[in-house]
Amino acid sequence: MAKKRKAARKNVRKARKTVRRSVKKVDPLLSAVKGAERRDIGGVRLEVGRAGAARVKRMIYPVGFRWSKNMKPIVGTDLCMHAHVGFLARGEIHIEYADGCVVEHKAPQIVAIDPGHDGWVVGKEPVVVIEFDFERDTVNRLGMPDAHRHR
């Protein structure tokens, strides 16, 4: 009887070890955003939700992404003409304005990117940005310049 109990305990321990090994960690920063509308554009995963008059967006830019390569053909402008305000939660992205000025952003960091820029992911991990905007009225509502100026 004691041998049967001992064997049963051993089998339970073995089963627990197997379960522990097969559990995958879920990265909440990359998980689906509850209540958000999801779309993929130019390789960027975009999830958007409303918060009062504003929108809250989570954008995941893949490794190798560059606005002028991936988005320009879709949008049809030479540069991204949107203002971006938010939190860079993961990765590194560089921004280049029309005047040649390059700004480097590396997580964790608050970002404010003026309209009229190109941007690209640096390194071997995707970039995750949590952004707040007012659609076409972001520049005015947030008091941003309508184009890049040296401050």
Structural class: alpha+beta
Spell out the CATH superfamily.
Answer: Jelly Rolls
CATH topology: Jelly Rolls
Strand content: 35-45%
Q: Give me the Rg, rounded.
A: 22 Å
Q: What order do the SSEs take from the amino end to the carboxyl end, as H and E?
A: HEEEHHEEEEEEH
Number of helices: 4
The main β sheet shows up as: 6 strands, antiparallel
Mean pLDDT, all residues: 90
Number of beta strands: 9
Tell me roughly what share of residues is in helical segments: 10-25%
Tally of distinct domains? 1
Across the major sheet, the strand order is 1-2-3-9-4-7
| Low-pLDDT stretches | none
Q: What's the CATH C level?
A: Mainly Beta
Q: Which shape, going by the Cα principal axes?
A: elongated
CATH architecture: Sandwich
For the record, give the distance between the C-alpha atoms at the N and C termini, rounded to a whole number: 81 Å
